[in-house]
Amino acid sequence: MRKLRKRSFAELVLENKRQLLRDQDAMDKIEERLEKKRLDKAE
């Protein structure tokens, strides 16, 4: 049986980023949160 290699933190972050970029609903939610933060800081 093949030994599974542990992934580094950087590899996990990259994989997560790729999944998020493919998920339009998640991207929309992130954009809304960022926009809300910007508006709150501007006040």
Note the topology.
Elements (H helix, E strand, L loop, with lengths): L8 H14 L1 H19 L1
Structural features, described:
- This protein has helices at residues 9-22, 24-42.
- With 43 residues, the protein is mainly α.
- The protein has one domain (9-40).
- The longest helix is centred in the C-terminal third of the chain and has 19 residues, at 24-42.
- The protein starts with 8 loop residues before the first helix and ends with a helix.
Helix content: over 70%
Q: How many helices in DSSP terms?
A: 2
Strand content: under 5%
Number of domains: 1
Order of helices and strands: HH
Rounded to an integer in angstroms, the radius of gyration calculated over CA atoms is 16 Å
* Average pLDDT taken over every residue: 90
- Biggest sheet record: none
The count of β-strands is 0
Tags for this entry?
single chain, 43 residues, mainly alpha, 2 helices
Question: Brief description of this entry?
Answer:
It is built from 2 helices and no strands. With 43 residues, it is mainly α.
